Amino acid sequence: MGVSPKADLRVGNFSVLPWEDQYFDVVVDIFALYANTLPVIYSTLAEIARVLKPDGVFYTKLWGPNTTGYGSGHEIEPNTFDAITSGPGSGMGVIHFFDREEIDRLFGALFTPIAIDMISRSDVAANQHLEEFHCQFRKKC
After folding, report:
1. 106, 105, 102, 97: which is closest to 131 by C-alpha?
2. How many whole angstroms separate alpha carbon 17 and alpha carbon 40?
3. CA-CA-CA-CA torsion for 6, 32, 107, 54, nearest 10 degrees?
4. Closest to 88 measured CA to CA, from 121, 39, 135
5. Which of 24, 25, 91, 100 has an alpha carbon within 20 to 30 A of 84's alpha carbon?
6. pLDDT tens, residue by residue, 100-138
7. Which CATH number fits domain 24-139: 3.40.50.150, 3.40.605.10, 2.102.10.10, 3.20.20.80?
8. Based on the number of CB atoms within 10 Å of its own CB, is 52 exposed (0-12), middle (13-18) or buried (19 or more)?
């Protein structure tokens, strides 16, 4: 018989993670980090680095500024908008759009890039353009 995986699932604020230092080999974010202001993004990245083991891997998917809805709604800070009126973020609250230079700047202090892929696609049915960054990083030791 095989070993049954055991999950340690917790509810909380991901900018203050409830795990000890160097707990995870991998951290995965699928379109959650972007839904914050820059101060929360900074603290979340620091927490991710804290809970990753040395040489641990962080994967994230982020919206780019060529995504439908960028610039609509109310701008809170550079590239961060609330109440976006169109695109995949419409009605979703706060959204930060990342460009490549910002990814290098924000993530570079804590992580070394393994791969950063930019995917540009269209959702014809929804009449939307989507720019996604799929990023893999290794924790700096």
Report:
1. 97
2. 12
3. -10
4. 121
5. 100
6. 999 999 999 999 999 999 999 999 999 999 999 999 999
7. 3.40.50.150
8. buried
Which residues are within 8 A (CB) of 108 and not within 5 positions of it... i.e. 6 or more apart? none
Q: State how far the Cα of 56 lies from the Cα of 15, in Å rounded to an integer.
A: 18
- Tokens 């009605």 correspond to what residue? 91
**What's the predicted TM-score (pTM) here?**
0.90
Where are the domains positioned within the chain?
24-139
31-74 confidence digits (pLDDT tens): 999 999 999 999 999 999 999 999 999 999 999 999 999 999 99
In the numeric block, the tokens 């908008």 are attached to 81
141, 55 Cβ separation under 8 angstroms: yes
Q: For residue range 64-89, what is the model confidence (pLDDT) as tens digits? A: 999 999 999 999 999 999 999 999 99
pLDDT band at 2 (very low <50, low <70, confident <90, very high): low
